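Weekly structure sync - notes
Attendees: PM, LS, DV (DV joined late)
Agenda: review two folding runs queued last week.

Item 1: First target. Sequence and structure tokens pasted below for the record.
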Amino acid sequence: MNEILVLGATGSTGRRVTDLLRSSGHPVRPASRHGEVRFDWNDRGTWRPALAGADRMYVMAPDDLPVDPEFVAAAVEAGVRRVVLLSSGGIEVMGDERLMAAERVVRGSGVEWTILRPSWFDQNFDEGVMREAVLAGEVAVPLGEARQAFVDAGDIAAVAVAALVEDGHAGRSYEVTGPRALTFAEVVEIISRASGRTVRYLGSEADYLAVMTGFGLPEPDVRAEIEAFAALRAEGDAVPTDVVRQVTGRPPKSFEDFAADAIWG
């Protein structure tokens, strides 16, 4: 029986995709740099062994790494006939050429494809890039009072699994969101209540510049990020979609429920 290759299988969505596939009895190959099957975007010697025997795959690339067109071509040559790509919402607005290029590669692969464009992950705050900020008591994001449709990684994984194992999702780009749009101030307040910690939101560009350069990031790089956030802010409040319910048959998880289940410590 052909297997489903899951790249980034130790990451926030990859390990959830792997768990969901296994629990529903689907043969899965979890691949990562340090996982059960070794895969490294920078080591082409790992590509074909990871692809061997797979006819479907879940693709994501770590931050700052592209989805290599030669890998996708190798996957198709090896027998992969369905690709589900983890992209991100708002990539045109933010000017994320890396992910725009990844989407073009997948669309042009010649096989069935589905693209997931999730909003901000809930898990950014408890296992991702903002965890340390939460634990330090200050979250800096220069989005002011703009609302974002935060989504749980488990819901993203559920949509991915449906696209991998069910028909009817080929050629679709799914904007995957949570049930409602929240400001970062509201999110931080929810986290404060759930964790028992005092966490402040710093939402101005000046705050963000001070915090990021204080961490040692080069000022030109931080200012470029601020410009991208400004473009996102100018788009106005995010509008939640009903993708999770439509694809999985159940409602998306609320941020309050995520925060109640998270481990803050």
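Item 2: Second target, run right after the first with the same settings.
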Amino acid sequence: MKALIFAAGLGERMRPLTDRTPKPLLVAGGKPLIVWHLERLASAGIREVVVNVSWLADRFAPALGDGGRWGLRLHYSHEGATPLETGGGMLHALPLLGDAPFLAINGDIWSDHDLASLPRVPAGDAHLVLVDNPAHHPDGDFALDRHQVRASGADRLTFAGIGVYRPALLADWRDVVGGAPGADASPPRFRLAPLLRAAMDRGAVSGEYHRGAWTDVGTPERLAALDAALAGGR
């Protein structure tokens, strides 16, 4: 299995920290956020990782190299000056990811989730990890009905930014996103959420509830809190 790390975002809410450093390269607990992912991916048996890059794209290779220090082989999916959003970024990275199911993880989260426990092949088109709703996102994203993820329902949870996907999820992306802004750009730019909701409607998204640690490192304050928590755990 290969993995994709979403690292192309502009990091606007993290300014001024991201004026010169991409958000996934910001440090918490003594190492960049993305390095925590690389270590966990390597521990899970992943050997090839694609990192999609846009904002300050030239900072990644000097910091991470070819991935050899973690026993990984890194590939960089360059999106240009404008990030392609999650759906467009995943589509753009498919030539590097291949035809088999792959793991994808947001570069701006931190979690102790055991990535080795994820299914290598999802039952449907995707398998998502859900967590309790943080204070800044109280309404959640999706509902978990036993092991099926639904677009709506009671007791909604937050998508953790960790999932396993079949490339087939993107097969009909044009029909799903229609004329959304950016869809007609070259390369196309669109969000992944509409494709996931369409897959949920046909019962093709499984999921799990992660009860452990998880942080969306979206602001300088949350980065500082994570850094303090990790430092305290050493």
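Discussion on item 2: Helices lie at 33-43, 60-64, 85-97, 173-177, 193-201, 220-232.
Action: LS to circulate a short write-up before next sync.
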